[in-house]
Amino acid sequence: MDEIYAKYEYAKKMLETELQILIKEFERKHGYTPVEHTKSRIKTEKSIQCKLTKKGYGFTPENIEKHISDVVGVRIVVSFLSDVYDIVSMITHSTNLLIKKRKDYIKEPKDSGYSSYHLIVLVPIYLESYVEYITAEIQIRTVAMDFWATLDHKIRYKFQDVIPADIQNAMREYAEDIQELDRKMYEMNKIMSKYEKEGY
Q1: Which whole-number Å values give the CA distances from 40 to 20, 102, 104, 158, 163, in the listed order?
Q2: What share of the chain is helix, strand, coil (3-state, %, to 5)?
Q3: Using the 8-state DSSP alphabet, how is residue 149 labeled?
Q4: Which domain covers residue 143, as residue numbers?
């Protein structure tokens, strides 16, 4: 188990470094950075055990590697809706990361109202005599989406995922409000870009 956790630590550092370089290069090319902030983590042992139990698997290194794709996780929070897809494109074109799976919860939100763009990537780690690819998850979302997701997480924790119907309905309604706010901010950003091009 110590060996597999060491590999996840290496993958986390590799992924953090790669994303920092990509974001810096984006900023150099475009003259601005769309990223408000990033956050990375490795799932706790307890969280991994719970997830494996829900899936019906025992807590073993083999099951962790095979059935848990988000032991390493990075969240990238951006300003505007269009920035999400710019960051997705940036990561997709990285020569150091391999895209294993993608899920656009912005175009197709979860029933709860959750919105975000998820990428499952393979991160190379360079060991003594070989290269191994470790699975990691990258979430890209706007500030508004991140605000909603943080509250949703706290509510789910408080009610242990058995959320009263009136609160579920309210959260879905607020998610729609946030999606509308993101659309309005996106339109405002387009207007701002037009003024910038005119040398305002």
Answers
A1: 12, 18, 20, 23, 28
A2: 55, 20, 25
A3: H
A4: 2-197
Q: What are the pLDDT digits (tens) for 88-139?
A: 999 999 999 999 999 999 999 988 889 999 999 999 999 989 999 999 999 9
What is the torsional sign of CA 158, 160, 162, 168? positive
Residue whose structure tokens are 């949703």? 152
DSSP helix/strand/coil, 65: helix
Taking Cα atoms as reference points, which of 149, 139, 137 lies closest to residue 179? 149
Cα 1 to Cα 100: distance, rounded to the nearest angstrom: 24
The predicted model gives 5-15 an average pLDDT of 96
Query: 115 with 105: CB under 8 angstroms?
Result: yes
127 Cβ neighbours under 8 A, 6+ residues apart: none
Which residue in this structure is represented by tokens 């508004």?
A: 144
Place of tokens 């799932």: 43
**How many folded domains does the chain comprise?**
1
Between 3 and 14, where is the model more confident? 14
CATH for 39: 3.30.460.10
